[in-house]
Specification:
- The protein is mainly alpha-helical.
- The chain has a single domain (about 5-105), classed as Winged helix-like DNA-binding domain superfamily/Winged helix DNA-binding domain (Arc Repressor Mutant, subunit A), CATH 1.10.10.10.
- It contains six helices and four strands.
- The protein has helices spanning about 5-15, 25-35, 40-50, 80-85, 100, 105-110, and strands at about 25, 60, 90, 95.
- The longest helix has 11 residues, at about 40-50.
- The protein starts with 6 loop residues before the first helix and ends with a helix.
- The structure holds a DNA duplex.
DNA sequence: TAACTGACTCGGC
DNA sequence: AGCCGAGCCAGTT
């Protein structure tokens, strides 16, 4: 893992590595960074990601259930689902279909 | 400066 | 099987 600097910068870095058509969870990123249970911070970092450069695909990060909990922070909120569907991910009722199938684990993919 | 909040997760009841 | 409480860390007020 590369420690770019502050916590949220690391989160941004990992989030940017998420391949297209794949998704991951806050907890997975938190665990990868070694912060363990601080999944909340990942979400908070995502909030800052909107102003980050280069932009972070925050729409590929959802909660452990595959639920688009963060969509409310998008403008409009429906954009998150739209982006995911555009990448071939089926989303229904704010929930990713076959979430585990599209799941991208930084611990496994990045080592 | 101290306190609160938050796009989460886990464990217990 | 669903609801409730606790833990986590950093940024914001």
């Amino acid at each position: 893992m590369k420690r770019a600097g502050s916590f949220f910068e690391d989160v941004h870095d990992v989030a940017r590595l998420i391949p297209e058509g794949r998704v991951t969870s806050y907890g997975a990123i938190a665990k990868y960074l070694g912060t363990g249970m601080s999944a909340r911070m990942v979400g908070w970092a995502m909030n800052a990601s909107f102003n980050a450069e280069p932009p972070v695909p925050a729409h590929r990060v959802v909660n452990r259930q595959g639920l688009l909990t963060g969509k409310i922070h998008f403008s409009p909120p429906e954009m998150m689902q739209a982006l995911l569907e555009r990448e071939g991910i089926r989303v229904e009722n704010d929930c990713i279909i076959d979430f585990q199938k599209h799941f991208w684990d930084p611990m496994v993919e990045l080592g």
